[in-house]
Design brief:
The protein folds into 2 domains: 33 residues; 82 residues, no CATH class. It is built from 7 helices and no strands. It has 145 residues and is mainly alpha-helical. It is 67% helix and 0% strand. Keywords: Membrane, Transmembrane, Transmembrane helix.
């Protein structure tokens, strides 16, 4: 529908209230503050979205280093808990590659020997190595232990 030029010429210009026509520093400061707040929210969302996730191997190294100075029985318990957390995840056991299953079997056997074999050789460093081998064979999924 075409506009009538005569009708448009008769319209008055848009008028704002006097307090909105004047320049106000508080409005400028409010706009800057809202812009900074929006930037901080965007930064927080981007940081969450782009954060690097820890690999299972890095998690295992960190947890084993923390348990290094514990007494042997407590260290063995921490190793067993770490192995359990690494072995239970989103992937099913049947979907794991053969080298991962073999590494898991070796690590579980080392812990089982240390726990249940009377007079068995309890070498926590060998168990650490078995756990690290298993953790290194896991895909990078970022799941925590």
């Amino acid at each position: 529908m075409p506009a009538d030029p005569d009708l448009l010429a008769q319209l008055r210009p848009v008028r704002l209230p006097p307090e909105l026509q004047a320049f106000a520093w508080p409005d400028v400061f409010a706009a800057v503050a809202l812009g900074i707040l929006a930037a901080l929210v965007l930064l927080a969302v981007l940081r969450l979205a782009t954060r690097r996730q820890e690999t299972p191997l890095a998690i295992a190294r960190r947890k084993l280093a923390a348990a290094k100075d514990l007494p042997t029985d407590k260290r063995l318990f921490r190793q067993a808990v770490l192995l359990d957390r690494l072995s239970t995840g989103k992937e099913q056991a049947s979907r794991r590659p053969a080298n991962t299953a073999t590494a898991l079997t070796r690590a579980k056997a080392a812990i089982g020997d240390a726990l249940y074999r009377p007079g068995g050789a309890n070498d926590p460093d060998a168990i650490d190595t078995a756990i690290l081998t298993f953790a290194g064979s896991l895909p990078r999924s970022g799941r925590g232990a």
